[in-house]
Design brief:
Number of helices: 4
Order of helices and strands: HHHH
Shape: elongated
Helix content: 55-70%
Largest sheet: none
Oligomer: single chain
Strand content: under 5%
């Protein structure tokens, strides 16, 4: 990327695979330990990355290289996908943790998603 713009380029295939591997590994760790804090931290990281990419995109001048703008749009797209996946995994692990600790959930609106009984 040109124009001296520092960004975490999640659109790069190698970086995308590393982020995907780390996310799956940490979600699995949260599931095994039944700690919803782990997916919650991942979710916060991806939301921060999304905000940073949005700020970078909004602060560019119109004369910026088209490659930089395209890369930022791809990064924002992948950030949104990771936010969706980590949010659902957070809800899943949080539900498991609540059942383990016999806590009542405030809202079980996603029960249909976790239960596979037909």
């Amino acid at each position: 990327m040109g124009n001296n713009i520092f960004t975490i380029n999640i659109a790069n295939p190698v970086n995308l695979l590393l982020f995907l591997f780390a996310t799956v590994l940490l979600i699995f760790l949260g599931k095994e330990l039944k700690k919803s804090l782990i997916p919650q931290i991942i979710l916060i990281v991806y939301v921060i990355m999304l905000v940073l990419h949005m700020v970078q995109l909004s602060s560019l001048n119109p004369a910026t290289d088209a490659e930089v703008i395209t890369t930022l749009y791809k990064c924002i797209t992948y950030d949104l996908l990771f936010v969706l996946v980590t949010f659902l995994s957070y809800l899943w692990v949080d539900d498991m943790e609540a059942k383990l600790k016999n806590k009542k959930s405030l809202d079980n609106s996603l029960d249909w998603f976790w239960n596979t009984k037909v």
